[in-house]
Amino acid sequence: MSHQPPEDAAARRAIPPVICYPNETLPRPDMALYAAALATAEVTQTLLAPPREAAAFRVPAGHFFRIRSVDGPQVGDLNLWNASDLSERFYSGKTRALHGTHVSTGERLWSCLPYLRPMATIVDDSLDWYGIDAFGGSVHDVIGTRCDPYTGNLLAGTQYHHCCHSNLTRALSEATGLAPAEAEAHVHDVLNVFMCTGFTRDTGQYFMKASPVRPGDQLTFLAEIDLLGAISACPGGDCSSEHSSDEAACHPLAIDILVPVADALSGWQSPSVNGYDRSHGLKS
Ligand SMILES: [Zn+2]
Q1: Partner of 113 at 20 to 30 A CA spacing, among 14, 96, 138, 187?
Q2: What is the mean pLDDT of residues 187-208?
Q3: CA–centroid distance, residue 49 to ligand 1 (Å)
């Protein structure tokens, strides 16, 4: 049953919104310094995530990593961990609360509690021209989770093994030597690189549409701490129709690791973990 609205329902709906987390006090990265360091940085390694597979990579703090479209339009699901402590991982939900539903240049990927520090900062985004389209869609979202075989099984009774969740699980297992079941527990909600998504205004449902990404497009980050990353070339391809199956056309994604020239980042420091004292109001 649905309920009767109060007499002042219209007035209540007309109250303007308030930003939950005004971010003017967030520590600001020196983007001019980052951009200048990127301009002269050299590629030291290039890896490829094959279609419907993931690739893991390591990036020392103060180096860059770049995710690049090759061959054809493709969406990637990105996970990040502290390279020496997998319990510190990317926190998609808080990144969304701090920066909004989609991220671009100057915004950062934050780690989970109790660490809550920048893991990576976006230094260049070749899709920054896209903005927010008429459907409310934009690129590089932190609103999706990652395609996974459990949801596929729930909705369609399938047993599909190349969802991003499984691809990331295999890649992390191979990179760390952890058993797959153990690695799976470290896989987390992603940054959807190049994916174009939003919420429908009428039903509030999560939607996707064909990504505007073209070969040559890239998203480049500075690693703020030593990182282990993994990116899955989503079985949804450009996510114009469906995912969680082998139906869509899929393409690889390249990952470049770049080292800045000496002193290019002078003055930059890897951020410390969050300063909250963790006493939670308990008497010591
Ligand atoms: Zn996926």
Answers
A1: 138
A2: 95
A3: 13
